């Protein structure tokens, strides 16, 4: 009986191609919007939390704490300024600090940021060499997997960085880097960076200003003026979370920003827009349910004679009830499946667009746990929309209908 109901439902839907297509489209749009929002927001949040994992504090120049996090952890904003090199030694000697990883920013290569740092930064993100080796002297560079793939970097290749953190800056042709290693993909911010010793960043700008690094007096003068962009700090004890930020912020030229707090604040701000879009998607699903109800109800009125004839041929009322429910369920599930596929295609397209900017990465092949409820919701929408027409079909009065 159930098989017959679905077979009849399919034939009935095929008999009304325009109405069927419009209802499928409306259901698909609502589910696609919800799928896109769930998949994209979950991936962005997971990627963001993966990048800040293990970083308790970021120390940088005074300014916006969120800007400091975006520039030094996610590498999607300009830095707030520079801090004295002596800050690193000061924090490294503090008993509340387990590790302070230096960052020196300012240049890029074909849109990918050149980050002056130490091997600890690569280790922090579980970076592993795919080919070559890690840098061990100035002007050596190690490429993240995505950066290497996009620019076609190979071992021994020489390149010149450009001033600024975006494409189009003035090139430092007199201070070329040499590629000595390429990292395996980690799924973190490391993949889209070009890494080099901090000394490389200093040397590039010394050459640019015509400073002779072999002159001891000039080098000593430069050493006193050395600066870093930021320090990524790990706490040595829980007590540090209370006292260390306050101690750093009390110093005139430094600020301490907590990645977990600033990231949560960022997602709260973004969450308002996401919630609005989810509301729009829910409204579209409601509109799809209403459209489905109207379509099935009108179809029932048009087929009352057909249904009465089925009754006279021996079809029990339950079969007519199942027929209408099957139509609503088929429309909802097929529309949901179509919308789910469209939503993931949209995520993949957005991911490809964002990857060209080297900022954010999304994949349409990742299914998030929150998407599981979309199919049951779509099924409920279809069943609820078809329930009243199904009840009316169940109560069809054969004699009254055929006498009209």
Low-confidence stretches: none
What is the string of helix and strand elements? HHEHEHEEHEEHEEEEHHEEHEHHHHH
Structural class: alpha+beta
* Main sheet makeup: 11 strands, mixed
Care to count the β-strands?
13
- Count of discrete structural domains: 2
Folded structure, characterized:
With 404 residues, the protein is an alpha+beta fold. The chain folds into two domains: 2-48 and 266-402, no CATH class; 57-257, no CATH class. The chain has 14 helices and 13 strands. The protein has helices at residues 2-15, 17-52, 65-74, 86-92, 119-124, 145-151, 198-208, 216-224, 240-249, 259-302, 304-312, 317-356, 374-394, 398-402, and strands spanning 57-61, 83-84, 97-109, 112-117, 129-132, 140-143, 158-159, 162-163, 177-183, 193-197, 227-228, 230-235, 254-257. Strands 1, 3, 4, 5, 6, 7, 8, 9, 10, 12 and 13 form an eleven-stranded mixed β-sheet that branches. A two-stranded antiparallel ribbon has the order 2-11. Strand 3 and strand 4 form a beta hairpin. The chain is elongated, with a radius of gyration of 31 Å. The model has no long low-confidence stretch (mean pLDDT 85).
